[in-house]
Amino acid sequence: MGAKQSAMAKDGQTAITYTYTDEAPMLATHAFYPIIQAFCSQAKIPVQIRDISVAGRLISHFPDYLSPEQKKESLTPETPTIEVDQLAALGEMAKGGKANIIKLPNVSASLPQLKECIAELQGKGYKIPNYPEDPKDDAEKEIKARYAKVLGSAVNPVLREGNSDRRAAVPVKEYAFKYPHSMGKWLPDSKTHVSSMEEGDFFSHEKSVVISEKCEARIEMLSEDGKVTVLKDKLTLQKDEVLDASFINCKMLRRFFEEQIAERGVMFSLHLKATMMKVSDPIMFGHCVKAYFKDVFAKYAETFEKIGVNANNGLGDMAKINEAQIRRANLGWSPRSRIPSRPQIQRKSVFSPRRDGSLWVCVIN
């Protein structure tokens, strides 16, 4: 079904497109979407649903691995078959300027989550290939490139190419002004603080240039031994576009983590955007995991290497040995540090400065 056809009803009226995503929003959709259909049908407003879940997007990138029967499957009778890239269709629809897309929260899949999804689909009879960690040939490289389209925040950039409006509605703003968030009183002896690197980080190394004319460029990595690796070829740049580049010193990053992790009697919380910055942030997260569990990595270095523990994947890999061995005696261990897409120990810590620098934390041992 084409983007224009799906965006418009038969009488020319713009349809409402609801999105089928993951986890709790997906479960809620099964209960709420029929209600939306009932109300909209009374108002003669066409409504449709499109599958942009991790599983749905993953399958759509491997139509050549589906059986003829599987290619005919669809979420609903009115929904395109699973071999259709419904996210791409929504992206084209959003560019048209007349789309009404209700985008529900969706999973920005980390690599461990992607692998779990692949295994689950394979268990359901979908003969999609395994994820090639280290591609050996062009075929495996092509498979990895397909999977890369599903990793991280793959949905939002596509839908935001259109006329996406994320501004808060006026009534919401007025309510916030009238009933502002409560502010706590900080105690003079509060140990709470927010830290960032003072040198050696992306900010201190950042360089920008304005492109004088339309051209193509490529991103290269020059290693210490002089070897050049092309990271991205044929990067199209427009006239007056700003090209920005930077790097971070990993040794200084590790030292910064070790200084901040030093015992102060407060909860340590790391905030990254690993789902959007899916190349750099999982690596920085891995450095933090190694610094936080420095003694554990030193003690089990040989074992970790044998079983393939990757700190970038969080504690999930380390738990292959024994969760009890990797607990900190002075801090509750959180499942959020299991995978790189959920590196925060406690999301509410971002609200701490509004209160008084303190938080209620529930630790379950």
TrEMBL record:
<keyword id="KW-0521">NADP</keyword>
<dbReference type="GO" id="GO:0006097">
    <property type="term" value="P:glyoxylate cycle"/>
</dbReference>
<dbReference type="InterPro" id="IPR004436">
    <property type="entry name" value="Isocitrate_DH_NADP_mono"/>
</dbReference>
<keyword id="KW-0460">Magnesium</keyword>
<keyword id="KW-0816">Tricarboxylic acid cycle</keyword>
<protein>
    <submittedName>
        <fullName>Isocitrate dehydrogenase [NADP] 2</fullName>
    </submittedName>
</protein>
<keyword id="KW-0329">Glyoxylate bypass</keyword>
<dbReference type="GO" id="GO:0004450">
    <property type="term" value="F:isocitrate dehydrogenase (NADP+) activity"/>
</dbReference>
<dbReference type="GO" id="GO:0006099">
    <property type="term" value="P:tricarboxylic acid cycle"/>
</dbReference>
<dbReference type="GO" id="GO:0046872">
    <property type="term" value="F:metal ion binding"/>
</dbReference>
<keyword id="KW-0479">Metal-binding</keyword>
<dbReference type="Pfam" id="PF03971">
    <property type="entry name" value="IDH"/>
</dbReference>
<keyword id="KW-0560">Oxidoreductase</keyword>
